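Why should sequence recovery work at all? Because a backbone constrains its sequence more than one might expect. Tight turns favour small or flexible residues, buried strands favour hydrophobic ones, and helices have their own preferences. The token representation captures these environments compactly. In the example below, the structure is given first.
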């Protein structure tokens, strides 16, 4: 589909509408054709990190998955406004308005200002995102930067009768809301079932209903982060920030909202209720949820204390790690499982991914030196469409990876003279590999001029030159020993008439 600006007489965007994208929608529990509200524009909102501590690998999995989703939408030609927030206020330890404020607690512990905590961990998050080669969002709004918008939204919800104020705190009235709208719709639960799973109110509770949640929370005099409001000094509840910021930047109803599936039952359920109550329209057409990264089957989380920091994974500096892994090997590891399935961390799985990633990157180099022939032995157009079909089927990255390895097989076979490829097919093969490896899966070559890479290259050249001399002197014992010992440490060497190549 071509979008044309008549006044400026030029083509604005071309969306590949021949690629029929289907998305699994948590709300309807089925795969649906993706139909943006206002094509070629797409609004995408993803719940960002709560910046009171380092992001762990599980958080990174969610953000890397949505980066792949964002990249594919852009690749198809959509003009995506990607909003990913920073939660820097209002997140209490318990998701249901209980416990200490996470930022204030950490600020006291580290003897820093709460906003120093926010800045420190926002910087750390950005560094991890850069290392994992994620694209920056179009807008990265913060909760503290949108207090006015949140207060306005709470005022509207109060005015519409879905909230009540008690002693400076404003609560959302879930039972009242549920009379008109199905509160548990996102997780397919009835109110009665949800009530069963919630503790009875005690005499100390202010709120009227067990499922009611705070939109605005009254500050104590010693509360470090507080703002004036019509209900006195306080701070926003955790859920209201995403409703206020998504509607501000993407409209009352927008296309895709994402986050980890641990957010479905409370945070996203409450977001839907707040937005619906305020704007009388469903806020989101497609809800997407990433599944959890687990360690020995247990969800990785900050509170469970089983988290690897990405930095520990890159250096190998953690008791559960055999060695360090390059960020792109870790990203490749993530791409080998569908975003909707759990991904269990293990050294073995990462080692296998490291090898697979190296093989892929070697082929990306080899493809540049392939020679074209008069005929092709492979169907490259089909390979390309297979990659699109996989992505069109709810962003099925592992199937794309399997197809890319068919590409790797073809590249290596042509290089070895076992298969042939025409010039047109070679160009298409290069484009397909580059589009999906770099643009869509977001991988890049790791041998990017670091001092270590340069040193390794130099050492390998020296070793291969010693081996060449040994062979010329008919000292085959030495040349075989070099080959075998390199293999033992994971380096393969391949001799051809003209040269000797090495790879991991
Ligand atoms: P938080 O900083 O805790 O607000 O989490 C940021 C994002 O990471 C949210 O979308 C969470 O759902 C997601 N997340 C948290 N733990 C995991 C995990 N173990 N695996 C995948 N995503 C996670
Ligand atoms: Zn959110």
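From this structural description, the recovered sequence reads:
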């Amino acid at each position: 589909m071509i979008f044309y600006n008549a006044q400026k007489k030029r083509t604005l965007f071309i969306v590949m509408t021949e690629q029929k994208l289907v998305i699994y929608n948590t709300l309807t529990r089925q795969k649906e054709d993706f139909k943006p509200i206002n094509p070629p524009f797409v609004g995408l909102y993803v719940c960002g990190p709560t910046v009171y501590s380092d992001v762990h690998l599980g958080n990174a999995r969610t953000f890397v998955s949505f980066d792949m989703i964002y990249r594919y939408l852009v690749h198809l030609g959509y003009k995506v406004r990607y909003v990913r927030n920073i939660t820097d206020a209002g997140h209490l330890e318990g998701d249901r308005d209980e416990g200490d404020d996470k930022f204030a607690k950490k600020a006291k512990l580290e003897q820093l200002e709460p906003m120093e905590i926010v800045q420190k961990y926002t910087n750390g998050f950005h560094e991890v995102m850069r290392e994992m080669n994620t694209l920056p969002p179009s807008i990265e709004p913060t909760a503290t930067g949108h207090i006015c918008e949140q207060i306005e939204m709470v005022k509207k919800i109060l005015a519409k009768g879905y909230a009540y104020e008690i002693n400076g705190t404003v609560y959302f009235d879930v039972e009242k809301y549920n009379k008109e709208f199905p509160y548990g719709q996102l997780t397919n639960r009835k109110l009665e079932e949800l009530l069963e799973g919630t503790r009875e109110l005690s005499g100390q509770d202010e709120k009227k209903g067990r499922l009611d949640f705070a939109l605005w929370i009254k500050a104590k005099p010693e509360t470090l982060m507080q703002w004036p409001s019509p209900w006195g000094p306080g701070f926003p509840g955790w859920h209201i920030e995403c409703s206020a910021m998504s509607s501000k930047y993407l409209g009352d109803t927008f296309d895709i909202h994402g986050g980890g599936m641990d957010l479905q039952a409370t945070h996203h359920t409450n977001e839907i209720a707040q937005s619906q109550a305020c704007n009388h329209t469903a806020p989101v057409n497609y809800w997407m949820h990433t599944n959890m990264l687990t360690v020995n089957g247990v969800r990785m989380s900050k509170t469970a204390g089983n988290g690897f920091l990405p930095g520990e994974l890159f250096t190998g500096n953690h008791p559960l790690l055999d060695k360090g892994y390059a960020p792109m090997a870790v990203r490749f590891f993530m791409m080998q499982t569908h975003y909707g399935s759990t991904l269990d961390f293990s050294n073995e799985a990462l080692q296998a991914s490291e090898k697979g990633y190296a093989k892929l990157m070697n082929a990306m180099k080899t493809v540049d030196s392939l020679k074209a022939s008069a005929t092709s032995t492979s169907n490259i157009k089909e390979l390309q469409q297979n990659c699109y079909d996989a992505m069109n089927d709810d962003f099925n990255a592992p199937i794309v990876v399997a197809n890319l390895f068919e590409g790797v097989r073809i590249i290596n076979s042509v290089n070895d003279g076992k298969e042939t490829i025409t010039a047109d097919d070679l160009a298409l093969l290069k484009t397909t590999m580059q589009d999906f490896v770099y643009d869509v899966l977001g991988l890049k070559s790791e041998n990017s001029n670091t001092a270590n890479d340069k040193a390794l290259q130099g050492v390998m050249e020296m070793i291969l030159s010693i081996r060449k001399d040994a062979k010329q002197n008919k000292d085959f014992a030495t040349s075989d020993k070099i080959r075998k010992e390199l293999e033992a440490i994971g380096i393969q060497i391949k001799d051809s008439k003209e040269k000797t190549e090495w790879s991991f």
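A few observations help interpret the result. The chain has three domains: 15-290, 320-440, 451-503.
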